[in-house]
Amino acid sequence: MARVSVEYRDHIALVTLTRGDKMNALDDAMVQAIIAAGQEVAASDARAVVLAAEGKSFCAGLDLASFAKMGQVDPREWLLARSHGDTNQMQELVMVWRRVPVPVIVAIKGVAYGGGLQLALGGDIRIASHDAKFSVMEMKWGIVPDLGGMFLLPKLVRSDVLRLLTYTARPIDAKQAEVWGLVTSLSDDPLMDALAMAKEIASKSPSAIRAAKRLIEVAESADRADVLLQESIEQAELIGKPDQMEVIAAQMQGRAPVFK
Questions:
Q1: Count of CB atoms within 10 A of residue 257's CB?
Q2: CATH number of the domain within which 221 lies
Q3: Whole-structure pTM over 0.85, yes or no?
Q4: What per-residue confidence (pLDDT) applies to 67?
């Protein structure tokens, strides 16, 4: 059965996890489908992406059958293999959304546990329902976060919060997740608000939005000199180009810009 659907409308890609009857738990087919969806929208002309899920929950993490398979082969064979550049397949499940060149907004309801939380962290922005719950769940199963969570979490939460979440596997509610920085905002209807935000982003200069995502990625990891230089490089490729000239013309004429 299909695990993920991808729809395009008004320059927005809506990617939906469709294993709702299993709380969108991650099995091999689900992992492969999510990576394929990320690669598809990355290659498209979408200007924004919304990642959402069917059913009551966003994603409950790795399914039990997948846990059972772990001990059947030497884990070094698949964990240490860099199958997607700097990631293994499981890490690419999350990091593929950082490779998507436009903003990814994640709409979260129900639970985002373990791998499900890490998947949500791959997005640029997270909008959650008021009753959503989150957990760095791996310690419950005697393992550690390894889908990119240890790259992404320190950028969002304080060290003591990271340690508490990792050591205890304690579920937290949406309000606490927002206070601690795991969630961008709370909503009565996360999908509706995510789509509205995507529509707003899609109305901006496509080239500037892509440049901004590239620049933020550098800004979060490079040193001062590299960031300052990258600012200049990106800006030089925007000023005076068609998208920027259309923005200026639209502002002066009091209309919405139209990008080719």
A1: 17
A2: 1.10.12.10
A3: yes
A4: 65
